[in-house]
Amino acid sequence: MKNLLVDKNSGDNIQVKVRDVIIGAQEKTIISGPCSVESLDTMMKIGRELKALGVHILRGGAFKPRTSPYDFQGLKDDGLRILSTVGKEMNLPIVTEVMDARDIEDVLKYADMLQIGSRNMYNYTLLKEVGKTKAPILLKRGLSATISEWLYAAEYIMAAGNENVVLCERGIRTFESYTRNTLDLNSVAVAKQKYRIPVIVDPSHGTGLRELVSTMSVASIAAGADGLMIESHISPDNSVSDARQTVSMETLGRIMDTVRKLETVL
Amino acid sequence: MKNLLVDKNSGDNIQVKVRDVIIGAQEKTIISGPCSVESLDTMMKIGRELKALGVHILRGGAFKPRTSPYDFQGLKDDGLRILSTVGKEMNLPIVTEVMDARDIEDVLKYADMLQIGSRNMYNYTLLKEVGKTKAPILLKRGLSATISEWLYAAEYIMAAGNENVVLCERGIRTFESYTRNTLDLNSVAVAKQKYRIPVIVDPSHGTGLRELVSTMSVASIAAGADGLMIESHISPDNSVSDARQTVSMETLGRIMDTVRKLETVL
Amino acid sequence: MKNLLVDKNSGDNIQVKVRDVIIGAQEKTIISGPCSVESLDTMMKIGRELKALGVHILRGGAFKPRTSPYDFQGLKDDGLRILSTVGKEMNLPIVTEVMDARDIEDVLKYADMLQIGSRNMYNYTLLKEVGKTKAPILLKRGLSATISEWLYAAEYIMAAGNENVVLCERGIRTFESYTRNTLDLNSVAVAKQKYRIPVIVDPSHGTGLRELVSTMSVASIAAGADGLMIESHISPDNSVSDARQTVSMETLGRIMDTVRKLETVL
Amino acid sequence: MKNLLVDKNSGDNIQVKVRDVIIGAQEKTIISGPCSVESLDTMMKIGRELKALGVHILRGGAFKPRTSPYDFQGLKDDGLRILSTVGKEMNLPIVTEVMDARDIEDVLKYADMLQIGSRNMYNYTLLKEVGKTKAPILLKRGLSATISEWLYAAEYIMAAGNENVVLCERGIRTFESYTRNTLDLNSVAVAKQKYRIPVIVDPSHGTGLRELVSTMSVASIAAGADGLMIESHISPDNSVSDARQTVSMETLGRIMDTVRKLETVL
């Protein structure tokens, strides 16, 4: 891995601008929202709470990659419209997943940042296509991608012309079954020390257990992460998907308080 | 996992027809050819040898998913034309990988069977799109896909209307580093015993070491596989990609002899 | 890994003699019996059936390594006496696990071959001590031991003076949860091709599912294994431990028939 | 896993006393020293520096479990004597590994705390024997032990009568090869939240790369660890073993400063 665009020596540390939010700057970026967009009403309530807490970017899944073709696949275009409405109302930038290269243009009408999900980290077609836009990209690590494959995935996007890439560590697949995934904070330390790209951590998928999210959020920031993406809901137990790993607004608030205290020490 | 199209009780065992070749019938199907299509001349020589050995389907990569964006990405359309020319000359059906939903129609002008590679097993967009065709699909297992995720990926294709799906076990990612992957023949036994879908094995990727391909081919057939996909070349050491796991025509011939002997016993 | 006693070039292929049974010779060795020794009566019935089927070595656990200290830990000395009684009555050699270096002398009063279990593969104290005896050793692969660590474990025994070592592949720990372990037949091909040590396969632990044992037994022999170790019981569902992976005498008989047919082909 | 001695509801949180040091109390415990004991002179210099930094417990390997029987196996009894001499001189408690149940009594003449290494986590013989002493035990997680197997290993010691057990997370074996192991801080969060046993983290083995030790030390404390075990040396590059993951005294000092700052925030 020599002479890559992602290398420290190929330029300054990358900062990615999502509307007014800068990822990779001193302040840690908090991205939050429900796993799936469910309805305008619920989303508006969630957005209002997140805005009040000082969350920087609103997330929500409109297109959902699901293991079974018979599971809920997301509200799709309706979900995008809901996200966009709430984002405008609350003056919050929006990040949402795109799964199909043919949808990029449409999704960008509503969203400010595109997420490439874990299952699509090796989808080089999709990586090249988002590389042709100038949109900020949130690139999740593949389920069992090595650190070096993940950095090469970022390189696919950057080599296509788009340097606005943020990595997202979300846990890897191991033999351990107590937690949904094994959150690999070594990867954050490696990426931050040796490469010039911002890294955020998703402790929701990284643990799969809401009671661990708070602790692992703090550990992620301590490992050098530039921010967090946390699944939250006004009524976590009633989330349409990923309920077991979704935190309440109260928990999210406490996490943000601790992160802010930590920022002053590190 | 109840009431899936892939379940034994949802219909007869599936047999997939690729021109005159039937995968899932009594005779084991041998698919072979180089990792990448390199030139018309080399491909024609390879095709002639494979035809003489009795290989059933010719494989060759035209679109290559590579970890680095700077590695050789395949001859693309030129590769497809070469494959098609050789296939016609030798009267051999062609299987080749498709990576982009927008390429399906074009690739089907040249190929008889579409391969979904390991990196795209979770690319549900692509699965749904090949599900809209009637083309035979060779669905490789993802690098770290569970057996159940792999069966659900097949279900995505079948639920979209295309039952012509063949699974391909190609080794999974584990801690072991002596071999490139850990060939999981348990998965073949499970799929054959409990589901109605044909399964072939790729011992080339499943070991990464050409000296193990012969032994693991025999083991795969013994585990119940309906066929094999083996990377071969007239000059293995000069293969543009995957040289370390590519066998010679002589080795391939010996493998096919042993497989035939085994068929009479099992 | 150069100049090891286990290397091909350091001597002839090793054959390990367990009373009259030679492991590593042309005939495949079948080791069978229940997971745990339960009672003299049951063990005698099992021994009689196994003898009639032509099984070569009788296995049974007297000292059982269990994840929980509160689970059944085996009949210990009583178990050894039962095993020995049945072995003498049926004229069958006995293999059983030893977990404590201080027990070796005692266990060898009853058993003909010592098993080092997966959990003790890295227990170098125990390896060195069994290396000081001349007893045949069955060395199971650790839960997540690499092939090279496993060969080095054999080397610990051999370097201490005992060359009578047989490797036993029993599946490795991976992300896959459908099967109890992932049976790694690549490891058998590697060990047989590159080292001079016999290898047998345990498809019972390698799958964890009795309905897969038959198929994976055949695949193991096809991969070059010198024999099989299969958990069997006269009443599998009533086994005190590992019932889910224990086969009946009828199944064992069919497996042995197929193995014999396979021997003539390969 | 119900009604275990390790459960929260079976008693107060455990605090383990190693001479005057209390692990599991408010102050974080720092254990440090070289991978192997090399000589009295070097060890004395290291001990002096560690004492000056405020390290609480001195570590050093006298009995070394090594993959190859031909690698350096430690200074054994001489190593123990050196450790003990330095410990007395510097008034520092000593922790060192014991590999053989027959050595426990001897090792306890020199050491204040016994380490059970990763390779022996499933060595139930050894666990039961250290359980018969009252000595503080540092129980490292097995290379690929699940969290629940690790807790059961602690339970083996506790059920034998010794409650003075401290868990040590040291990274697990995964497919990732950039780092030596994948440090699993989820496991720390689980153990601290749901069980009553102290947990320390070994970021040296958990990363295998000295440049990551500092960052991952901080992350470990943030994840709730009660302390750290860090390999250090006065001349890291000249360490007899594990040089690549050994830090200098300067680095160790900086880590301890940051940990102290963190303690005040969390």
From TrEMBL, chains A, B, C, D:
Highest taxon in the source lineage: Bacteria
Class of enzymatic activity (EC top level): transferase
GO MF entries: 3-deoxy-7-phosphoheptulonate synthase activity
EC number(s) reported in the record: 2.5.1.54
InterPro entries associated with the record: Aldolase_TIM (IPR013785), Class-I_DAHP_synthase (IPR052899), DAHP1/KDSA (IPR006218), DAHP_syn_2 (IPR006268)
Keywords on record: Transferase
Domain DAHP synthetase I/KDSA: 14-262
PANTHER family: PHOSPHO-2-DEHYDRO-3-DEOXYHEPTONATE ALDOLASE, PROTEIN AROA(G)
Protein name per its UniProtKB record: 3-deoxy-7-phosphoheptulonate synthase
Origin species: Clostridium tanneri
Gene this chain is encoded by: aroF
